[in-house]
Amino acid sequence: MATIYNFEVKMTWQKEIDELGRRRELAKQMGGDEAIARQHSRGRLTVRERIDLLLDRDSFQEIGTLAGNAEYNDEGELKSFTHAARVTGCGKVNGRPVCVEGGDFTIRGGWADPTSFVGIGGFTPEKLSLERRIPFIRLLDSAGGSVLRIESMGRTLLLGNPGRWAVPAALMARVPVVSAALGSLGGYPPVEAAASHWSIMTKNTSELFVAGPPLVKQALGIDVTKEELGGYKVHAYRSGVIDNVAEDEADAFRQIKLFLSYLPQSVWQQPPRAETGDDPERRDEELLSIIPRDRKKLYDIRQLIKHIVDKDSIFELSPFYGRSLVTLLARLDGYPVAVVSNDCEWFGGAQTVAACEKMMRFVDLADTFHLPIIYLVDCPGFMIGPESEKEGIERKSARLAFALTQLTVPGIPVLLKRSYGVAGALHAYVSRSNLRYAWPSGEWGSLPIEGGAMAAYRKEIEAAPDPEAKRIEIEDRLGQLCSPFRTAEAFGVEEIIDPRDTRPLLCEFVKGAREITATQLGPKSRVGIRP
Question: What is the pTM of this model?
């Protein structure tokens, strides 16, 4: 009887796996050697170099690796492949998961039609960030839309998706969103830069504008360079669209990592504590003399803050915009806090229109991500004068007041020096119980004595034989009644403290605040318009 042998031939998918690897290698070539060299010649990294530099080593998991334009020969074999003009995926920053999206300028200038970046199935990296509850980082480098699209499509494109902003809005309410401007941004990408909790741009290699110089020339007849139109001096110093400036891309990524270190992964978590090794009971003697007795002399508010918060824990946001107000992230006994104060070296610390805008955004960030607010008050009032009136200071002050009344996160004001008028009074909204600590250097009222005395006693002063001497006499008399101790006697200020006790008191406050914010996790429910 013959023996029958049954040989089974194993079939594998190795051919397809090899094709997958080939296509991935083609994707990594981006726009080709010439385009990459051109990108480098401008002092800019490629999108893949940026992702490698930003994320922890070997942590990036790309999504959409094979998305792009392919050409085939008559036999159906791949001739060429160009990846889409963006790279997306997930990775880690200091061990914490994030979602990242980057424009690839080497491919059609990072062309960024807002309808082109959504998969057929409706996938977007923003949705993934929402679902996984992790921070979202945009690495923006795109010239925006192009009329070249008209010929390739054979028609024009009518933009107008009513749901386009629903996901970004939900993203802002739930996870930290960071935008980095790393090239010349036009059209939609500059709006993405603004649609973030914090943004940064490189000093000499990035610009952003709604429309670039050619369109400005055509529409307005104005010749302007990219830097003049939308460089860092425009957007970090004047418009406030960009928060911080980086010396180069490596510095930008360092700052992104630092910013995220103060925030939770999402609103469902507490901000992470870090061991700083700084004694919460530290009492610096310099605080006794840092505010001068001479009311006309200035002092360094940042140096004052350094004596209060944990050493080397300060990260300032928007340092060049609204400069009469200081907004920074710091730590107290290792816990992240949001610190806001007035800077007397700029407009005397008055609340300008820009300062109001800056404070609104900052307290909104703090409230969204459960950061206790410390307000170190030295506010002479709202900025006065013709320019301030033209800018609409009253409307901005009202919006700031509304934003402060909606705060749910614990906060506490410390009155360092001045607290005058409506602007000075806004410190009260920081604390629900209106518990206020004051230094002995504190002074307050509806108006400063200087100027206020002339307004209230004009007739008496002008009728005096020596009006100037009379004015000084009245100011001295009123000054004797303005001691903070007299206010404390009427329980008009809750507690006057030794300045050296500020750090221990605030460290204790933050511990208690942590227990409260633990009960407030999740998205905020707000009424009214928020900036």
Answer: 0.90
